[in-house]
Every structure is written in C-alpha cells, then in structure tokens.
Amino acid sequence: MKEYQAVILKLTQRTRDDEDALTDLLNERSRGGWEAAMMSQDEQRLTVVFARLGEPAR
To answer: Using CA atoms, how far apart are residues 45 and 11, in angstroms rounded to an integer?
Structure first.
C-alpha cells in the first residue's frame, strides 16, 4: 500500500533561499524513503507530493 505526503513550500522570490529550502526538503524526505511523485507551482508556493511503500494493509 502506498503512503502519500504533501508539502507546501512558500516561495520567497530569493532564488538562492528557495533553492536551499527545496534541496533540504528533497534530501530530508529522501532519507525517510519518500520519493517525489508530483509537483505543482504557482506564484507564491510550490507543492510537492511524496510517495513511498507503506505497511501492507491488514
């Protein structure tokens, strides 16, 4: 069974800060076994949906 987690990252319009925040987010989730499954962006925020295989349903 897959688990999903959505994360909303507020963009600051400072490219370097936004890059660092996104890199930290992706590295943190990757260490936890999560993989980015989908991303969407508007002017103010980036939404990333992560997925991983969870415990089998009982």
So the answer is: 5
